[in-house]
Design a protein that fits this description.
By secondary structure, this protein is an all-alpha fold. It is built from 19 helices and 2 strands.
Length: about 350
């Protein structure tokens, strides 16, 4: 037992050092969108963050570089993105941030304490969700398989690249999905539904799992209604202040990104399309409903099946593969002979 704990500490330290290194030496252009959101919100534009760029004069550098459609994520995603800017506000020079956001490439090519520390601070909140996801993973797997689960997560290239190199926030909704599974493992469907709702209020894909919780864990109609309301409450609550914004409605609620699952279809007539994802999703949901098995070992497989279907027929972004990483780990732990494929 003591040797296992010592091994865990060693690999956790190696994983942390690897992450800290990547945070300061890597950059991806997508990083600037989330850095801009943090900058805007830390400047006090919380309720008008979506309209901020729209209201800028056309000769403003931000308007020229970003346009007005850069914020295509739900409000909670932008609020999470602003955490480093709010926490480390005194350590982030305003003029440096403006210059970095307009042209980050001018700061690369040689070591600069200001540049490297800014990258470190702006990505720092990913560490929290990263290791919280790992804790949830370890809590739901058998004790004798925890070391393998730890190694598969700590050195997973999808985690390292998506979060610490590209600067995307996909680890945040992924954490809330795994948290929901952990809560189901602890037989708490209400908090699991809330976790799905919070994750869905950052990126929409966790909402795909809410019907499984409602149908398989709701004991009766009233119970199912409660689970539904709890699940949609976070998105409704954080969206209400922004419903007056036309930019929010067009970029978030009606964005093409949120409708990608409907792009793949088969024309059955001139005006009718059979949507492949909808068909597959309904079939998985029907199977789960008739199977009536709602234990953890079944729930993660339902979630996994939905994500595999989604990625199979969607024009995906590479960071989306992070969503399936925990489920791949569950799959490998169940069939341990497959770990060599890693």
């Amino acid at each position: 037992m003591m040797k296992l704990i010592s091994d865990f500490k060693f690999w956790l330290l190696i994983g942390l050092l690897l992450r800290l290194l990547l945070m300061i030496i890597t950059f991806h252009p997508d990083f600037t969108a989330f850095a801009l959101a943090g900058f805007v919100i830390s400047e006090g534009h919380i309720l008008d963050v979506y309209d901020y760029l729209f209201n800028l004069p056309s000769n403003h550098p931000f308007y020229h570089v970003f346009g007005i459609n850069i914020f295509g994520y739900p409000p909670l995603a932008l609020l999470f993105a602003s955490l480093p800017s709010l926490i480390f506000y005194p350590l982030m020079d305003r003029s440096f941030q403006e210059m970095f956001l307009v042209n980050p490439y001018q700061f690369f090519g040689s070591f600069s304490f200001e540049t490297q520390s800014y990258l470190l601070l702006r990505k720092s909140h990913f560490l929290l969700f990263d290791f919280l996801t790992l804790i949830c993973l370890l809590k739901v797997v058998a004790f004798e398989k925890r070391k393998l689960a730890l190694l598969l997560w700590i050195f997973n290239p999808l985690v390292l690249i998506a979060d610490y190199s590209m600067g995307h926030f996909d680890i945040i909704p992924t954490f809330f999905v795994i948290l929901s599974l952990f809560l189901l493992f602890r037989n708490n469907p209400y908090l699991a539904s809330l976790a799905i709702g919070i994750g869905g209020a950052t990126k929409f894909f966790p909402f795909l799992f809410l019907p499984f919780i409602i149908l398989l864990w709701g004991k009766n109609f009233l119970d199912k209604a409660k689970l539904l309301l709890i699940g949609i409450l976070p998105m409704v609550a954080v969206s209400l202040p922004y419903l007056q914004s036309p930019v929010f409605k067009s970029n978030v609620l009606a964005s093409p990104e949120s409708q990608k699952a409907l792009f793949a279809g088969v024309k059955v007539s001139g005006a009718d399309t059979l949507y492949l994802f909808v068909l597959g999703y309904v079939l998985i949901l029907i199977f789960a409903t008739f199977h009536k098995a709602n234990g953890f070992e079944f729930m993660w497989k339902y979630f996994f099946s939905v994500l595999l279907l989604f990625l199979a027929i969607t024009n995906f972004h590479p960071q989306w593969f992070l969503w399936v990483t925990p489920f791949l780990i569950f799959f490998i732990l169940e069939k341990t002979s497959l770990w060599r494929l890693v």
